[in-house]
Amino acid sequence: MKKLINSPENVVAEALAGMAAAHADLLRVHTDPNYIVRADVKAKPKVGLVSGGGSGHEPLHGGFVGLGMLDAAVPGAVFTSPTPDQIEAATRAVDAGQGILHIVKNYTGDVMNFELAAELAKADGLQVESVVIDDDVAVKDSTWTAGRRGVATTVLAEKITGAATEAGASLIEARDICRKVAAQGRSMGVALTSCTVPHAGKPMFELPEDEIELGVGIHGEPGRERIKLRPADELAELLLQPIISDLPYQRGDEVLLFINGLGGTPLIELYVLYRKAAEIAAAAGLKVTRHLIGNYITSLEMAGASITLLKLDDQLTRLWDAPVKTPALRWGL
Amino acid sequence: MKKLINSPENVVAEALAGMAAAHADLLRVHTDPNYIVRADVKAKPKVGLVSGGGSGHEPLHGGFVGLGMLDAAVPGAVFTSPTPDQIEAATRAVDAGQGILHIVKNYTGDVMNFELAAELAKADGLQVESVVIDDDVAVKDSTWTAGRRGVATTVLAEKITGAATEAGASLIEARDICRKVAAQGRSMGVALTSCTVPHAGKPMFELPEDEIELGVGIHGEPGRERIKLRPADELAELLLQPIISDLPYQRGDEVLLFINGLGGTPLIELYVLYRKAAEIAAAAGLKVTRHLIGNYITSLEMAGASITLLKLDDQLTRLWDAPVKTPALRWGL
Asked: Quick one: closest CA in B to A198, which residue?
């Protein structure tokens, strides 16, 4: 296992220390339990927006803490759900009297632990609402998930809902906007290689040199099928058609097209994929009015990519365009 | 070879088409010859800032075209210098009557072709100045380079000089600022794995499972030595000490600390490295007042990272902080 780490036990703590050292203007890192909050947390009365999940998907979630996006992120061990006490502590830390919204990716451990944390916080009088993201059209039920997995739409939900809470949305308004994003976003990914969790020390799965995993999960969960490596244009079709047919999108719909790298794929390849995905979307009558291209929700060093479509409307577009200032996503500020 | 491409012959053209489709608000892609210019090129009289080099280092250079950074980028084939006619065409395309500055990474082919292009443009009456970046302290002379190689300081030079030209600096002023960045930036990198150029179809070099290349170049050029894999903290020392001792930096100096991923290394590991690098810099009496962390000058899917220190002063800090709006670097707009 070749990694730029000191030891598997310390990788998350040391990465958090690196984030704290680099981004003191934007965030604070709390240890024992681990969570990240905005440097200006509770500076104004607003709904607190909290997300989290296993580490290894960086910049998700810690890289999205800051103005116009998350108030707190809760990192678990690599590919491991954060504990209820971590989530509860983060929830309390961002409580500015307007309630707290949890954005949860649909994995059984995450859902259970966020629910437990919400119950604990509610028992103490806090208002907590939750939205579960389950946008992965690849498979119904998976290794660690009942129902669809939650993947890249989470990034879009955090941005859009964060803009809403920044602008003063109520807890119920923010929850409903986040639900709309969850309802209107669909994703699917493909792995060209596996990845190695530090404490495991060996690849999550084996892929022959000429095969790829179509519909892979972000923890290396099996997808729809193993197929022979195809040209990028064919893969764009294989990823996008299940997305387009699922929602279903209507001709004339405005969409955000998100090409996400899984960690080990060069940016030049993501642009090759974007080119074809934009063509396919246009051929389906969709208007790509916004986009995001890069490594935003990753699987350590896995080579591969996912495609996400989010159906937009004026409200979602305006919230997407709103200023954001986080380590990993920034504009307008 | 597992890549998200259609064919090795078309990867650069298709990635450029993807950039054109995604970033029509920021840039225009010209083909035959290939170059990228700002969408608002020549909208105001300013010095034109042009850089370029082989593809495969994305987002460098095309991802840095836009307001406050480059006016044009000239992409060659993967790991291959752009041709003089490409560079000349880009130079003409950004000529707004105030002269053109070329920022050139120190590789023999790049230097020669930028020089030829500058001569052609000057023969037609254009004013052209050039600054060569040679910040890599790893080795003196290398596979494709006389003298030191040009690496990650190039990103900082493009940002800072771009801010200066945006603010109305003259050609000579912009050249001198760029020279200052070149003189005050130092870098060194380490490769954990090799990478595969699409048209070659096999890795640039072989690295045993327990060895790394200390001082690697961004095209896989040999570095100082092959050593056994070490903990990240030791690697941070091995990369930073040659940098700190080279300039030399003085105690009390303000610096920008840049941790650059080479393409295949997860962000979580870059933060582990940042943590230790910031500690080492502080122990040397340096004040890290600015930073950059992420994949900005890459070697396709190579796993590894480079560390860069740039000595700052008030002028460079102000120009670094100035607004920038490009596909890969954006703040304030």
From this structure: B269
CB contact under 8 A, A58 and B303: no
| Residue B45 neighbours by CB distance under 10 Å | 9
Query: Strand, coil or helix: what is B282?
Result: helix
3-class DSSP assignment, residue B118: helix
Closest Cα partner for A281 from A255, A320, A317, A261? A255
Token pair of A329, please?
Answer: 């996503």
Contact by Cβ (8 Å): B15, B54: no
Closest C-alpha among B105, B268, B243 to residue A56: B268
Which one of B199, B271, B331, B333 would you mutate to disrupt binding with A, by most A Cβ within 10 Å of its Cβ? B271
How much is the ipTM here? Answer: 0.98
Q: For residue B327, list chain A residues with Cβ-Cβ distance below 8 A.
A: 293
Evaluate whether B2 touches A193 at the Cβ level (below 8 Å): yes
CATH topology for B185-324 is: Hypothetical Protein Tm841; Chain: A;domain 3 (3.30.1180)
Total Cβ atoms within 10 A of residue A203 = 15
**Signed CA dihedral, B246, B248, B252, B253: sign only:** negative
Q: pLDDT (tens digit, 9 = 90+) per residue, A164-219?
A: 999 999 999 999 999 999 999 999 999 999 999 999 999 999 999 999 999 999 99
In chain A, residues with a C-beta closer than 8 Å to the C-beta of B58 are 266-268, 271
Tokens 């597992």 locate to B2
**In terms of DSSP H, where are the helices of B9-103?**
11-22, 84-93
Cis amide bond preceding B45, omega within 30: no
| B125 min Cα distance to partner chain A (Å) | 36
From the candidates A57, A61, A102, A199, give the one annotated as an active-site residue.
A57
A219 is catalytic: yes
**What pLDDT digit, counting tens, does each position of B41-51 carry?**
999 999 999 99
Domain boundaries, chain A: 13-183, 185-324
Report DSSP letters for A140-181, one per residue: SSBTTBSSSPP-THHHHHHHHHHHHHHTT--HHHHHHHHHHH
* Angle at which helices B232-246 and B267-283 cross, to 10°: 50
Per the structure block, which two tokens stand in for A166?
């920044």
Q: Which uninterrupted H or E stretch holds A258?
A: strand A254-261
Q: Quickly name the fold that domain B13-183 has.
A: Rossmann fold (3.40.50)
Pair of tokens at residue B324 = 């920038």
CA A229 to chain centre: 26
CA distance B308 to chain A (A): 15
pLDDT (tens digit, 9 = 90+) per residue, B235-276?
999 999 999 999 888 999 999 999 999 999 999 999 999 999
